[in-house]
From TrEMBL:
Name of the protein in question: Thioredoxin domain-containing protein
GO terms of molecular function: antioxidant activity; oxidoreductase activity
PANTHER family with a match to the protein in the record: PROTEIN DIPZ, THIOL:DISULFIDE INTERCHANGE PROTEIN DSBE
Organism whose genome encodes this protein: Entotheonella factor
Matches recorded under SUPFAM superfamilies: Thioredoxin-like
Span list, region Disordered: 29-55
Thioredoxin domain: residues covered: 25-206
Biased composition (Polar residues): 38-55
Length: 206
């Protein structure tokens, strides 16, 4: 009797396990977030936070000055002299980036005359073969950024701690010290920085 009971329990366990396995197997794998570059997906966003703790260094400034300008003024020494500097990484296919540009437009219009500069670095534009010059131009036509747009590369990404998600945004004070670092959260809880936080940080620095 005990043997039959044990066999019955084992059968129930096996059936339950088989059902769980087949259910899991039928579920499609989760797609990687669109904001993550596959070749660098193993890099934690906190690496950028750690690497940029020294602030806006001379090598970082030098690289930003060499990047091709897509829109706005050329980046030069005056861009950084006694200025609060916002650097953000974006791509035209990134919907949260478009929302962030709305915030940055307001920040620029309100605080540029008080010493705030914004540099938007176009990066990951070629994610999953999505590169499209016409789409990028349309994005800029729609968002109408009054600040400088430059074409990024892996060098500037590495200098900012290896950017792996967009948007990724940094704010540096007038001495070049990092005051804020934001990146699109992997869990989707906060894809873009909220305007109130960004404005509060800017106001404490000008």
């Amino acid at each position: 009797m005990r043997t039959k009971f044990s066999i019955g329990i084992a059968a129930v366990v096996l059936i339950a396990a088989f059902g769980w396995f087949t259910t899991r197997a039928a579920q499609p794998p989760e797609a990687p977030p669109l904001q993550m570059k596959p070749a660098q997906s193993a890099t934690s966003p906190t690496k950028a936070q750690t690497a940029a703790q020294t602030g806006l260094t001379q090598p970082m400034k030098a690289t930003l000055k060499t990047l091709p300008v897509l829109m706005g003024d050329r980046v030069d020494d005056q861009t950084f002299t006694d200025k609060v500097v916002v650097v953000t990484f974006f791509a035209s296919w990134c919907q949260p980036c478009r929302e962030e540009f709305g915030h940055l437009n307001q920040i620029y219009q309100a605080y540029h005359d008080r010493g705030v500069e914004i540099i938007a670095v176009n990066y990951f534009e070629d994610f999953d073969n999505l590169s499209d010059d016409a789409r990028l131009q349309k994005y800029l036509d729609i968002t109408k950024p009054p600040f400088t747009i430059v074409k990024g590369n892996d060098t500037v990404s590495q200098q900012f701690g290896t950017v792996t998600r967009i948007p990724t945004l940094f704010v540096f004070d007038k001495q070049g010290k990092r005051a804020l670092h934001f990146f699109n959260k992997p869990d989707g809880s906060q894809p873009t920085i909220d305007m109130a936080t960004l404005q509060q940080v800017i106001m404490t620095l000008i």
